[in-house]
Amino acid sequence: MAVVDFVKWNGNPSILAWKFPSEDLSTWTQLIVNETQEAYVVKEGVYQGPFGAGRHTLSTENIPLLRELMKLPFGGNSPFTAEVWFVNRATNLDIRWGTPDAIQLQDPKYQLMVPVRAFGQYGVRITDAKKFLLKLVGTLPGFDADTLANYFRGVFTTRIKTGIANAIIKNGKSVLEISTELESLSEQLRDALSPEMADYGVGLAQFNIHSINVPEDDPAVMSLKAALAKRTEMGILGFNYQQERSFDVLQTAAGNEGNAGSVMSAGLGLGMGAALGGPMAGAMAQLTPQMQPAVAAPSPLLAPSGSGSNCRKCSHAMPAGARFCPECGNKAAAFCTQCGTDLGGTAKFCSNCGQQVAT
Questions:
Q1: Contact, 25 vs 80, CB < 8 A?
Q2: 241-266 b/e (C-beta count within 10 Å ≥ 16 → b)
Q3: Torsion of the alpha carbons at 156, 160, 162 and 167, rounded to the nearest 10
Q4: Cβ-based neighbour number of residue 295 at 10 Å
Q5: What is the mean pLDDT of the chain?
Q6: What angle do CA 231, 232, 236 make, to 5 degrees?
């Protein structure tokens, strides 16, 4: 294989570490390192460098392991086998993260179990290239931002879930209100994650939470939002929940006059009367007459003389057909069979319509 005399970065700008594809170098090989990059020559597992920005000639001066190779006559050049690694020191700000599954938390304000999800973005910068190559890159041909995100996903998920849970539960913040704390929570999580990444030569340039939300189609979330919407509506109208429920009961009772007694009993059993304010008391006063069952007056046509009614004098029950009360002897009441006028018990003709009274 031909000896390579010129080595420079040909990797994608999004890659954090890249290995030059050829390992056949010479003591006159030119190593070109761009700004925001560092290079290391790896010979027999030993990292030589770093080589900063500029042009470097590989020789025994910067690679001590080559001194013994210089004894071999090769026309002034001594070929050798070594790896050249480039590390991108530029800051990468476009690494996205998200919770792989929802965090089940009890909302401290509304006492409902709701699933919580979080999404965001962070940026990294290689702060210790040699440590990064030794601890993370190893023998891989390259190392990009997605690979880095996969390495730290477990640590990030644990820290993020813990941080969000603490912010919601320990601080008493509702899930629906936690969005106001995104900036401070982002700073807390960045401080918690930075030491973990520094052990691998990676600096956390920034960490941002873009969204902490709940699934819109979750039953608990739908119930919570419906309750909040109802509370807001009643607050605008000037009622509270107890008054709203009382109105519902009263309206139901007014529409079922035949069952007014049972509805009133249920309302009293719930202590409705004790909780009603001025407006409710007025509504009760207006609706109560409507809920009383109507008592029909006895029709005189249905109660002719001697039909088994009570005595008009002593109220004693009179048998059907009796003309005198068996208790006090008072004559039974008589009613006109034509118009129902009370005849007083002695008239022979009705004073209202002239109908003859049957004797």
A1: yes
A2: eebeebeeebeebeeeeeebeebbee
A3: 160
A4: 6
A5: 75
A6: 115
C-alpha R_g of the chain: 48
The structure tokens listed for 188 are 């807390």
Q: Please tell me which residue, 338 or 200, carries the higher pLDDT value.
A: 200
Copy the structure tokens of residue 24.
């056949």
Which of 26, 75, 19, 60 is closest to 42 using CA atoms? 19
CATH number of 92-219: 3.30.479.30
> Taking residues 83-92, what's their average pLDDT?
92
Going from the C-alpha of 180 to that of each of 110, 112, 168, 184, the distances in angstroms are 18, 20, 12, 9
> pTM of this prediction?
0.58
CA proximity to 105, closest of 265, 7, 187, 221: 221
